Hints:
The protein has helices at about 45-55, 75-85, 100-110, 115-130, 135, 145-160, 175-190, 205-210, 230-235, 235-240, 245-260, 270-285, and strands spanning about 1-10, 20-30, 35-40, 60-65, 70, 85-90, 165-170, 195-200, 215-220, 220-225. With about 290 residues, it is α/β, with parallel strands linked by helices. It folds into 2 domains: about 5-245, P-loop containing nucleotide triphosphate hydrolases (Rossmann fold), CATH 3.40.50.300; about 245-285, no CATH class.
Amino acid sequence: MSIEIRNVTHIYMEKTPYEKMALDDVSLTIEEGSFTAIAGHTGSGKSTLMQHINGLLTPDKGMVHIDGIDINKKNKASFTARRSVGLVFQYPEQQLFEETVSKDIAFGPKNFGLSEDEIKERVKDAMEFVELDYEEYKDKSPFELSGGQMRRVAIAGIIALKPKYLVLDEPTAGLDPQLKANLLNKIKKLHSKEKMTIIMVSHNMDDIAKLADKVAVMNHGKLMIYDKPDKVFANRQIIKDAGLLEPEVMQLLQKIKDKGLDVNVNVLNKNDALKEILTSLRKRGIKC
Ligand SMILES: Nc1ncnc2c1ncn2[C@@H]1O[C@H](COP(=O)(O)OP(=O)(O)OP(=O)(O)O)[C@@H](O)[C@H]1O
């Protein structure tokens, strides 16, 4: 069982002056049970790819199969296959709309036609999972919560659907370090304990190294590499080309290059990378 993305091309605003090829012949297979990270610079096509995985977008060329079913066909099997994917958008809290937390989380399960008892059970479980006390929060308006709590409500709404494949588009964007660590732990638990297949967009190489067993790197709509994290990180050129080093490290490397020098960086963490650059320059007798 897997998600198969075959030769997918997506062009926004085709045949207009704003035409943009967001995905260019992308193929990858995401195996059930895996934890896949999708990395790449801003505008490289990550969100577009995520929206193809749950059928929100239709490929201009190519196809997406989930567990062997073409999800872009208009039939019952394709509808069911699309439902096995839960997509958490970037800044999902912007999509909350119901008047209470419990109604918002119940929205998806209700659409699935589940019984009232089952819906209540799922809302409770999902709230417990994201550590929001059911009794305390169920009747609150989502809009009186903090940003981090709103994000948790939005994620609970998808978890309550119990998707087989959970797609998260930069789930920790804009969260403070504590909330971020907490959320990543939860996602890890969904993978290890609940056996969900996770596909997560992330810019953070340290998070990717800790969590993912496969990494796909996108660059200008193309899939550059799709492999185990150590194999991907060992490919320094792809990491550099895809803009995946910390901005400060990229800027320093550019300045060094402008002075006619070249330095290799073999670590991803910012502080270690900066130390490595300084050591390398000092070894060459350059005072810095
Ligand atoms: N609805 C749209 N209409 C036109 N162009 C779009 C649309 N959505 C995205 N694009 C363009 O397609 C390209 C890929 O965008 P996408 O959002 O998939 O990239 P991304 O890697 O997710 O970026 P980010 O990291 O900033 O979220 C970008 O050049 C973007 O400007």
